[in-house]
Specification:
The complex is a heterodimer of chains A (529) and B (320).
Chain A (H helix, E strand, L loop, with lengths): L1 E3 L9 H16 L11 E6 L14 H7 L7 E3 L5 E3 L2 E6 L5 E6 L13 H14 L9 E8 L2 E6 L5 H6 L10 H4 L16 E7 L3 E6 L15 E2 L2 E2 L7 E6 L3 H9 L5 E5 L4 H6 L3 E16 L9 H10 L2 H9 L3 E2 L25 H11 L5 E7 L3 H15 L4 E7 L1 H9 L6 E6 L8 H5 L12 H11 L4 H17 L3 E14 L2 E2 L15 E2 L2
Parallel strand pairs in A: 2-13, 2-14, 17-18, 17-19
Antiparallel strand pairs in A: 1-5, 3-4, 5-6, 6-8, 7-8, 9-10, 10-13, 11-12, 14-20, 15-19, 15-20, 16-20, 21-22
Helix pairs in contact in A: 8-10, 9-11, 14-15
Chain B lengths: L1 H32 L4 H6 L5 H11 L5 H13 L13 H36 L5 H16 L2 H15 L15 H34 L3 H8 L4 H30 L2 H6 L5 H10 L3 H29 L7
Helix pairs in contact in B: 1-13, 5-6, 5-8, 5-10, 5-13, 6-8, 7-8, 8-10, 9-10, 10-13, 12-13
Chain lengths: 529, 320
């Protein structure tokens, strides 16, 4: 049996722990003579309204951006993608990997004043099984039991990487009050109750989304939790009275809003804004790279791209650097990895097939494939300008080797709708959030679940099965390597590389630490008095 | 006259019903034919087909088209426009919430456009002989105003008045009822962005219509009677020139109310146009249908008001 962590010392009220933490922070900040202070309203310009506030349901970056401040999970990721405690103070995993026992923190309050217990955690897990974005991954859970008010037991029928699934920031298994967890359909604003440092107040579409400090929040302070901002974990102190997320869809308008002080922070600013932001006084520009991964998806089941040689020809032809430079406006990184850079499971498999820019080899492969100038359909969208530019450069590079590319431009909904169909298209451009753990391969490559690639392969399914049930990091990396090998050898899709952008912050904002998984993190952030 | 007018208005309202109904049917059919659905967007990319299907079931999107069509109109006749998928509120409330701001901005921009556009058109005609250079400058400015892209104009105004001069905010809206001064400041640049092209267009239109009217015999008669040129211009020429201009004014107000998408996006305003754009992008079918119905009603109402206004401008016009 493995065991993690010890029980913490008890703190009476938030003020006591905050004083302690403020002392720690204050000491660290003395060098900059900028002590954290409570108070103020932080206005953040974001790129639009989230499609929903139901965190379990949606993988939207906008949903995550806001609700990461309102909700918490039992476990989460730190900055280095290790699993760390959040609402669960400690956990044990049985030797056979089938039984997970979580010891919950005591005295954690929901925003409605009710104490969080194992009953709430159980009900939340059950809701996730009903509506969660990755609920299909939880089919192996056979039992969720409340052992006592602060102990939750989960039993699985086969050893799976449950902790990674539970911590995944793009499909978080948050804990909510059991009365709300009983609801299945989309939640009303009054139901958006969590345990996080900020509480949800209101959303007025196209005006603002307002959060206020949760005064009864007790920052996690124990031997396993880092002090300060650390991924989605660490100690989170809500210094701000209020956070106002203001939807400003146009990137130029968002940039001008932060330059003039209309907002204190602006996220998702394009690379083209970098020079102006860096030259503007009173502003700090954080270059965020990687922000997203630019990908070219192939339709492995239809027409010309069902032919391996054609896909390999495209793979050989593409000059990833030229594509990324144009698409990103100059903020990019060449990276063959499918997973988040520096992820412990990433390997070098396939690196030699990346960024070949080899027209001669591509022409040879086209000849072997018997290509005679037939049309290939490349779908793209202007919803993200990087996608559109990528399509243009890809088409130009492929035209140079004699391929006949028909670019079709759609809005996002239409493109995704078309991509789900097995026919009618050959390639489409896509932007992925950087994948945090290998289990995402199941969503992309599984022959039953694959939404885009229409790739069906028994050998890959067997590898994915193995992946789902592997916990040992060394073994995980080995299997991941085999999957990456297949992705590159069979040109299932082409990860072109990383594109970046900027977050701009006014200089009266302190404590901000950018992190591309959740942008922005506003705990431990304070305003100058 | 009032009885005839009353009958005319009633008849137009009755004629509007099938028109608006047709608009709603077209909106339903168009949205069904376009690929993509809201379940995909709710779930996010790389979601499994099972998750997307579950959301579709929850939203009732898997029901046969005929059932959805009948169900929609059953609710419509009860005054229920349905529930917005992404705004998570009933469509009637969602749409009505947008109207105060939209009417305010449209009113502000529209009145500005009419007052200045008509005035500049009159001024151009009044100076056409004595100061022809004035008329030429106005012509050039009119062409520039009509052709400049809305988003470019908005950004230029922001750069000048918000960034350089710091006179107005870059965007956002504060309701006038909450803080009149701040709310008014927040409306100036968006209203200007909407008004300037319309000022240019109305100026040209007014100038052109007045020059046509100036050829009429009754103008020559008025001059022959010894009336001052100002009286000829304002009392005799303008009233007749305004009839075609009024048609354009009606169209402008309609477009301002429902079509100011670019301006609302750049100035991040909670307007009707922006709401409709997002609804289309996200395939929020109930909201799109509700909004299209409202657009149909708005344009029918504006056309009716315009037609009634004709009678007051030109006593010869009667509807009977």
């Amino acid at each position: 049996m493995t065991r993690y962590g010890r029980f913490p010392m008890r703190f009476g009220v938030m003020a006591l722990s905050v004083v302690l933490l403020a002392g720690i922070f204050g000491g660290a900040c003395l060098a900059s003579s900028n002590q954290p202070t409570f108070g103020g309203v932080l206005r953040v310009g974001i790129e639009g309204m989230p499609p929903t506030f139901d965190t379990m349901l949606s993988g939207s970056v906008l949903t995550r951006m806001i609700m990461a401040h309102v909700t918490e999970c039992l476990v989460t990721y730190d900055e280095g993608s290790a699993i760390v405690p959040d609402l669960a103070l400690s956990w044990t995993v049985s030797a056979d990997g089938l039984v997970f026992t979580f010891a919950l923190r005591h005295g954690v309050l929901f925003h409605n004043g009710k104490e969080m217990t194992a009953e709430d955690a159980k009900a939340s897990m059950e809701r996730y099984q009903r509506v969660g974005r990755r609920s299909t991954d939880l089919k192996l859970i056979t039992e969720i039991t409340v052992v006592d008010p602060y102990t939750l037991k989960i039993v699985v029928s086969k050893a799976i990487n449950l902790l990674n699934l539970m911590a995944s920031p793009s499909a978080p298994m948050i804990v909510m009050p059991k009365e709300i967890a009983a609801k299945t359909t989309d939640l009303a604003q009054a139901d958006l109750i969590g345990t996080g440092p900020y509480k949800f107040v209101e959303s007025i579409p196209d005006v603002h989304i307002k959060l206020i400090r949760f005064d009864a929040y007790v920052p996690h302070l124990d031997s396993l939790t880092s002090v300060g901002t650390d991924g989605m974990g660490g100690t989170k102190i809500p210094y701000l009275d209020e956070i106002d997320f203001i939807p400003i869809p146009d990137a130029t308008a968002r940039e001008l809003a932060v330059e003039t002080g209309q907002v204190d922070m602006a996220v998702f600013l394009p690379a083209s804004a970098g020079a102006q932001l860096e030259a503007t006084s009173g502003l700090v520009a954080y270059k965020e790279l990687p922000a997203m991964k630019q990908v070219l998806n192939f339709n492995n089941a239809f027409g010309l791209t069902s032919n391996l040689k054609i896909r390999q020809a495209i793979q050989a032809c593409l000059d990833a650097e030229e594509i990324l430079d144009t698409a990103s406006g100059g903020v990019y990184a060449l990276d063959h990895n499918i997973l988040y850079t520096n992820n412990a499971s990433s390997t070098e498999e396939g690196a030699e097939l990346y960024n070949q820019a080899n027209e001669a080899k591509a022409r040879q492969l086209l000849q072997e494939a018997g290509y005679k100038g037939e049309e290939l359909v490349l779908m793209t969208t202007k919803s993200y300008i990087e996608d559109y530019r990528t399509a243009q450069v890809v088409a130009a590079q492929l035209a140079a080797i004699g391929m006949n590319i028909n670019i079709q431009v759609y809005d996002m909904a239409a493109m995704w709708g078309n991509a789900r169909q097995e026919t009618g298209w050959n390639m489409f451009t896509d932007l992925w959030v950087s994948l945090f753990d290998p289990s995402w391969f199941m969503a992309i490559l599984d022959s039953e679940a694959s939404p885009w690639t229409h790739y069906k392969n028994a050998e890959m399914d067997a590898l994915l099965d193995q992946l789902a049930y592997t916990i040992d990091p060394v073994a995980l990396r080995e299997i991941n390597g085999q999957i990456e090998r297949k992705v590159w050898d069979e040109a299932i899709f082409y990860p072109i590389g990383d594109v970046g952008g900027y977050t701009a912050v006014r200089s009266n904002v302190n404590g901000f630490v950018p992190w591309r998984v959740v942008r922005p993190r506003l705990w431990n952030v304070w305003l100058d008095k | 006259m009032h009885r005839d007018m009353g009958r005319y208005i009633l008849s137009r309202l009755l004629q509007a019903v099938p028109v608006v109904f047709l608009v709603s049917i077209l909106a339903f059919m168009i949205m069904v034919l376009i690929p993509g659905d809201p379940a995909e967007l709710l779930a996010g990319d790389q979601s499994s087909p099972e998750v997307v299907q579950r959301i579709r079931d929850q939203l009732g999107l898997n029901r046969p088209l005929g059932v959805r069509f009948v169900d929609y109109y059953k609710h419509l006749f009860r005054g229920d426009l349905g529930h917005s998928i992404f705004f998570n509120d009933d469509v009637t409330t969602t749409v009505l919430n947008r109207l105060p701001f939209t009417f305010t901005l449209a009113g502000f921009a529209g009145v500005t456009a009419v007052v200045f556009g008509v005035f500049l058109g009159i001024l151009a005609v009044a100076n056409i002989n004595q100061r022809p250079w004035f008329d030429q400058i106005l012509s050039v400015l009119s062409v520039a105003g009509i052709t400049i892209a809305g988003f470019l104009l908005a950004i230029l105004l922001i750069l000048l008045f918000s960034v350089k001069l710091a006179w107005f905010p870059t965007g956002g809206y504060v309701p006038l009822t909450r803080d009149f001064a701040t709310g008014l400041r927040s409306l100036v640049l968006p209203a200007l962005t909407l008004a300037l092209p319309n000022i240019a267009y109305l100026a040209r239109m007014t100038r052109s219509c007045m020059l046509d009217v100036y050829q009429a015999d009754y103008i020559a008669t008025a001059r022959a009677k010894g009336l001052a040129e100002r009286t000829v211009l304002l009392r005799h020429a303008l009233k007749n020139a305004l009839i075609p201009v009024l048609t354009i004014v009606g169209f402008i107000f309609g477009r301002l109310m429902v079509g100011a998408v670019v301006t609302e996006t750049i100035f991040y305003l909670p307007g009707f146009g922006r709401m409709l754009l997002v609804a289309v992008q996200r395939r929020d079918y109930p909201l799109i249908q509700g909004a299209m119905l409202l657009i149909g009603i708005v344009f029918v109402a504006i056309n009716l008001i315009t037609d009634v206004a004709y009678c007051y401008l030109d006593p010869r016009i009667r509807y009977n």
